[in-house]
Amino acid sequence: MNPIYEQMQTSVFERMSALAAKHSAVNLGQGFPDFGWPNEILDAAADALKNASNQYPPSRGLPQLREAVAGHYHRHFGQTLRAEDVCVTSGATEALGACILATVSPGDEVIIFTPAYDSYAPMIRRAGGAVREIALRPPEWRIDRDALQAAIGPKTRAILFNNPQNPTGRLYDGTELQMIADAAIQHDLTVISDEVWEHIVLDGQRFTPLATLPGMVDRTLKIGSAGKIFSLTGWKVGWIASAPPLASVAARAHQFLTFSTAPNLQAAVAFGMDDGDSWLEPMRQRFARARDRMVDGLKGAGYATLDAASTYFLCVDLKQSGLDLDDEAFASAAVEQAGVAVVPVSAFAEQDPSRHIVRLCFGKRDETIDAGVAAMRKAKELLA
């Protein structure tokens, strides 16, 4: 069997969710919300299922969805995209896989910033590439210019960049975005920009797509996700948006991964991208209230939390919380003894990981947050 997969452990999300089910624990580990989807988009999906085609749609996506994505980005970020610049995929993870396979050849090196979404490294290796990690450090998780330049070598082909960043909840500032752009232009690199959290940006902050920086439109492959925008993670509708010829090459990689995505879900997402702008701000406010509720509860229980400017993830610093055990040990004990599942952030890095940070999902109803905070209080009492 392929050693990449033969030697791979089960995803940390799957592992912690299984433990949550086994111990009847509150699951704050896996990143899915239990609120936030608009009923109108569900109705649109049901209507399309019953009254429209259920056969293969075009591999690159329904024309109305591709047009809706392009129009959405023009309205929100001033980007000039055409329908032919968009390729619809079965979720953002498939989009990432297609972009990596389209970009990386055997022997190429790809830079990632860790902690990082755990699909990045295996997919780079599956394409024959090598991973170059740049470790970000809490509590700021800032990109260091010298570290970035030092990581670039003669075999570097691409940078895989996630903004806003999972698992840290970090929204990178203009200076850091310019560092990425400068490095890509100077060394002629492609940037695969994972921007799935682009609309879950809290506290009135504003997201900037990397492709809008000078010199980046022709070297950026953007990844987007309807699952994140509309809190419908199980739909697995994502897309790649890029100027040609990058978009066309990525679409060719996509056609032999999943080929196409459920047409009724595509039609519903097209409706949401066209008509759902008014849904976004109430959604952001609801996530901000949920974050603040969790932060207040955890601080009241004696935990030190890190700033979360985006996504629906919050990090807790165990060391600063007075707990003398690493994140894996805490996560295991918390789910087994206290009844709450969290994710150890060291699972998001292979080299030099931070081992004193755990991630919690705050995209939950009030009663779930309160139950999770109560269980975290119990965990601290047991483990301090």
UniProtKB/TrEMBL annotation:
Q: Does the keyword Transferase apply?
A: yes
Give the range the annotation lists for the signal sequence. Answer: none
List UniProt keywords, sorted A-Z: Aminotransferase, Pyridoxal phosphate, Transferase
Keyword Ligase set for record: no
> What Pfam families does the annotation carry?
Aminotran_1_2
Give the NCBIfam families listed for this entry.
Answer: PRK08912.1
What this protein is called in its record is Aminotransferase
State the organism named in the record.
Sphingomonas anseongensis
